[in-house]
Structures are given as structure tokens and as C-alpha cells.
């Protein structure tokens, strides 16, 4: 049995840097998430520009697998499609990605 994300889907305001980056420049945040889970920064960053919700569905699933977090691919799809920026910020927070230092 797995755990939960550190913050809820609407908890992105706890980490203002991730929240702002997810809303203003999501492709960069996607790239950082991709890098942290062992995927290609540039490829995911560019793919996000073509299909905005595509990479976060894939990456959120990878984050869940690596961190042993409960959930399903269907849930990742819904979060990525309906709440793209919040899902990006949630994944970045889970991986302790900090853009502004």
C-alpha cells in the first residue's frame, strides 16, 4: 500500500516558486520534473508546448511510481487534463524542485 502526495492538488500555494513557474512557464517546470525522474528535460519541455497536458500525465505517473504513491493512470489523466498547472506544481513539490533560491 502506497502513500499520498506531500500536498494536495490545490496545495500549490505552499510553494510559491513552483506555483508561479507552473502557471507562467510550465514547460520549464515540466523539464525539471522530467530530469528528476530520469527523463529528457528538453524533449518533455518541447512536448509540453505541443500538447500542454501530455507530459504531466506521463511524469505524474512516474513520480507516483518512484515515490510509491497511490493512484491510477486515469487519475493522472484527469489531473493533467483538468488541472494541468496544479498537477505540475504538485509533482514539482513532491520532488522538492526549487527554481528560485
TrEMBL record:
InterPro entries, A to Z: PLAC_motif_containing
Highest taxon of the lineage: Eukaryota
Family: Belongs to the cornifelin family.
Cited NCBIfam families: A_thal_Cys_rich
Official protein name in the record: Protein PLANT CADMIUM RESISTANCE 1
Lineage per the UniProt record: Eukaryota, Metazoa, Cnidaria, Myxozoa, Myxosporea
